[in-house]
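Please produce the structure of this protein holding DOR.
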Amino acid sequence: MNYLVRDVRPYGEGEPVDVRLVDGAIAEIGTGLSDGDSRVYAGGGAVLLPGLVDLHTHLREPGREDAETVETGTLAAALGGFTAVHAMANTDPVADTAGVVEQVWRLGQEAGHCDVAPVGAVTVGLRGEQMAELGTMADSAARVRVFSDDGTCVSDASLMRRALEYVKAFDGVIAQHAQEPRLTVGAQMNEGVVSSRLGLTGWPAVAEEAVIARDCLLAAHVGSRLHVCHVSTAGSVELIRWAKSKGWDVTAEVTPHHLVLTDDLAASYDPVFKVNPPLRTAADVAALRAGLADGTIDCVATDNAPHALEDKEAEWGAALPGMTGLETALGIVAETMVLPGRLTWRQVAERLSSTPARIGRLEGHGRPLAVGEPANLCLVDEAAPWTVDAATMATRSRNTPFAGRSLPVGVRATFLRGTPTVLDGAPA
Ligand code: DOR
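Below is the modeled complex.
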């Protein structure tokens, strides 16, 4: 079925236009287009953006289907405006072979809510000892281009160097979870005034920054691509800025939660606020917002980390780190970046769609809103505040730190290659 989407504002600019979607692509953009044989969807003046692309999602399948499945996680993604997500490798079994990445990719195709680009592990079993078969994963049906041991750091400098060298052969990228393990043994939260007061073991900024500095130097040394996951400190922003000023091929992401939440929330001892890297200080939040605004930080990535109730509703020390984020990401970006005038919608399209698609070498996503381009789209209602209700979300998990919070914008519709996955804010 072909759609005629009426009254939408591409990138939130100018007067509303109509957009015709034919055979999965944008066929026509104009005013007063005739219905023809298209089904009409009333856009109601919504902002039209290219479908969002997440570089960093945990879908938990295979292995922890009680926390999330590819089906439920990708539905949550579509409701959040995403048309593609990169699925992290820390599953059980780990996505360190062609077999596992192909399984995850195929499950995504079958679910049909959004495209799933599996991330391959850098090391066998995420153990940080032996390089996984990166080339086989790259050559597989899943076409893996992003490799990460996320959840744990590739801390061995020699192994990291070899992985960076290896992925050059197929234009891949190593996405590093920057955390020096010896500096974070037993860490429970950001190291600072609040951790001292609460008596919780601290996770110092230097544990992130030392690895970022090392990896930027390694990437420059071998002429490869480095992507830094979930940057969380002001010092990290400075280091990325320095690496970019040298012309090195280094990119970085920030999560929505690090753009808005701070470490004093740990005083509640509510483990919904436990995450890795931890929530930092207000000064870090300000630096992250500024870095995202000026392009030092290339993109927003959710680090959506669903967890089963028994893993999360424990005392702080025993609870697993992580927060869900797919359904709330755009709302948090609107609240922290768009409404205060730090980013335009066009820049949001770069930071949440075209740039992550480029970093992940993902074809058909993050393309301009233009005739002939794939109809991967999302419609954003600018004046539709909604209150986050953990109980009614599509994700199988309930660990959102934003429950009860009012978010200023909502996703009205999402189209994947011209077919709606979400209409009127509900699964199509
Ligand atoms: O909080 C986190 N949770 N950070 C990570 O790096 C991993 C993630 C998970 O897999 O739960």
